[in-house]
Amino acid sequence: MQERKSCLDSQASLPGEECGAKNGPHGKTCSRADTGEVIEVRAKRAKLIEEISYQLTDLITIISGRVEILNERVPGIFVEDLQAIRKAAMKGVEFSKQLRLAALACRREIGGMHDSVGKCLG
Fold first, then answer.
1. What are the beta bridge partners of residue 27?
2. Fewer CB under 10 Å: which end of the chain, C or N?
3. Mean pLDDT in the chain?
4. Phi-psi bin for 20: left (phi > 0), alpha (psi -120 to 50), beta?
């Protein structure tokens, strides 16, 4: 006999996505996780993204500072290499900004989800 999966046995995903469970506890389109769980998971992801972006920014700042120091100390033949390092660091700054924007988008989405849950429950 094959065991039937419930919605809670499936991996957590967005509300409204089908988990494949027949006649699940949420009806025909059974959600893999309830909205509260999804909000909690997304909030944790947003926080992790923010933390990583700040750590990345700190590392890039250190690298850029060391490049500036080396630029003053090393022979001129290495200037081109140091400029390449600085250019790569600036790309890293852009990636860090993108991470922060992604975290902000997550937080906005969480806020919207939280508001819609309140409207449904209220």
1. 24
2. N
3. 74
4. left
pTM of the model: 0.59
CA 48 to chain centre: 7
Query: What is the C-alpha to C-alpha distance for residues 43 and 53, in angstroms, rounded to an integer?
Result: 15
Structure token digits, residue 98: 């993108």
Backbone φ, ψ for residue 89 (5° rounding): -65, -40
Give me 23's structure tokens.
Answer: 């006649």
| Residue the block writes with tokens 């991470």 | 99
33 pLDDT tier (thresholds 50, 70, 90): low
Q: What is the DSSP code string of 76-94?
A: GGGHHHHHHHHHHHHHHHH
Angstrom distance (rounded) from CA 78 to CA 85: 11
3-class DSSP assignment, residue 27: strand
Q: Locate 11 and state its tokens.
A: 């991996």
Q: Which helix (H) or strand (E) holds 29?
A: none
Q: Where are the domains of the chain?
A: 1-33, 41-114
